[in-house]
Amino acid sequence: MSATDTALVDGLAASSSPIRAPADAGVHLVHALVDVVAIFTPAVQVCVYRRPSLLRLQAALAQQAQAGALVGFRRVVDAGRPLPPLPLPERAIAAGAAQELGFLVEVFGELLGCPRIGLRLEVLDRAMCPRWHRDHNGIRLLCTWLGPGTQWLDDTASPVTDPALLPADAPPSGRAAPFDLVLLKGGLWQGNAGRGAIHRSPDPAGAARCLVALDALWD
User: InterPro entries recorded for this chain (predicted)?
Assistant: First the structure.
């Protein structure tokens, strides 16, 4: 993790004000890590932290995917502690994959204050969830390393009661770029029953898509 990233994480941990978004903003885009606390604003369902792509890691992942050496995995990790060894390809490790995962886990752990985190690295050649939907969970972090990013729909102007009724080809309001941190609020978040981020997985058109997903674990 760079000195800048470390300072931003420290700032996130020290942040005391959870209200950093307009009261009626369903989707909030931020350019400083400390501002991801906007996800706690009641109306915000999607919060996206824009950041540059890690081109060296992206190139290593693409090479490993082309060689068939990139596989997904699932782990439960302790928040606030170094990550255990993970089944990452050597070239991805050399390109900083482990450090990037450590950064994402640290950010998410500081944000949610959870004791453990469910970590998934998904390697996909098709859309995992191609239709518009809401998740029945709390807050999830998604970060696409390779391939097209998660798409979302801002329904604040015209609220959607059941996203399953939306046509599959309905255009998104926005989509994540590689290495954006995307926070999605689900229907189980306190005060968010019957709501949640409306989103879907993009079609990678047969190419490899590599996605990190983090979920807070409390039990």
Answer: DUF1826
